[in-house]
């Protein structure tokens, strides 16, 4: 079964919504216009419930099937844009300089709206579908804010599914994997405290620049000597700041960076050893190190049965050969991970074709992918909630 006929017919309308959202990008939790647009559409489709203001600006719509009680399946899209100056040159490019839908969340929102309209018209399933539109995916943990507002328990959601577009993957193809599919993203700040002096009198100083240089090198051994080579880990020192003048040894140096992992035990190891190595190396140089390690989004962990199910649904839409079930994980992070910590489910990638990469100023969501995304959601609903 290829793309659903009705989904193909909807493409132009849904592309219109997508371009409207694209022209009017909003950041983080400040997605008031987008959320209002989504809520208006859901009401006009006749959703049984439309609740706004969840996790500040999130929206949930409930669509009941016409075949009686059953489970509740949650489908999630994200609504926020990025602080980027768009250079796509498209007719529907951002009207707000410095804000752009460079991650395709406009497309995710439009596809889920299209599916909601279809499902509200047909209702050919038992139980209910919850369509979830979240703010602040790009660094603000909007998914967690919505969860903390209790929507998953309130609407008794049993399973959750998410989707993200993937540039370079051909349109009409899907990719996923079981287990860790996107990384946990943590950040750290190390302050190396020494004692400043005249640069010509190093013996009167405790040089934090030399100590921090040793720390940067020593941290490389967490990946190369302490982690199973088959388990992914990134430790990057991304910035180093210290000192003002070429003839002065500074009092302190600040290092910042990120740690990416795909397994909880690797994450624990990295946090523990980063702290020990920074502090121990500082002491070896007579200095001290304060380490501030902040855990960000957790690993996006796909559950086995639901990943198999999601892949089988994608295969119904796109054909067996168009679904890669063994994709390499991304070391980027995704806050749908918080929903997957609460409920079983799966995250899948949908081909965006030969476009610019995500978070690139020239990026634009590919409207040709819309019927595939809509068909995926509809088929997922009608199969998981089959009568
Ligand atoms: Zn993004
Ligand atoms: Zn994204």
Query: Could you tell me which ligands this complex binds, including any ions or cofactors?
Result: zinc ion
Looking at the overall shape, the CATH architecture of the largest domain is: 3-Layer(aba) Sandwich
Radius of gyration over C-alpha positions, nearest whole angstrom: 24 Å
Distance between the termini: 19 Å
* Fourth-tier CATH superfamily name of the largest domain: Zn peptidases
GO molecular function, one term: N-acetyldiaminopimelate deacetylase activity
InterPro entries: Amidohydrolase (IPR017439), Bact_exopeptidase_dim_dom (IPR036264), Peptidase_M20 (IPR002933), Peptidase_M20_dimer (IPR011650)
Protein name: Amidohydrolase
Pfam families: M20_dimer, Peptidase_M20
Helix and strand arrangement:
Blueprint: H1 5-9, H2 11-23, H3 32-45, E1 49-54, E2 58-64, E3 72-78, H4 105-122, E4 128-134, H5 142-148, H6 151-154, E5 159-166, E6 174-175, E7 179-182, E8 184-193, E9 197-198, H7 208-226, E10 233-242, E11 248-249, E12 252-261, H8 264-284, E13 288-294, E14 300-302, H9 304-318, E15 323-324, H10 337-342, E16 345-351, H11 370-384
Parallel strand pairs: 3-4, 3-5, 5-16, 6-15
Antiparallel strand pairs: 1-2, 2-4, 6-16, 7-14, 8-12, 8-13, 9-11, 10-12
Helix pairs in contact: 2-4, 3-4, 4-11, 7-8, 9-11
Bound molecules: zinc ion (2 copies).
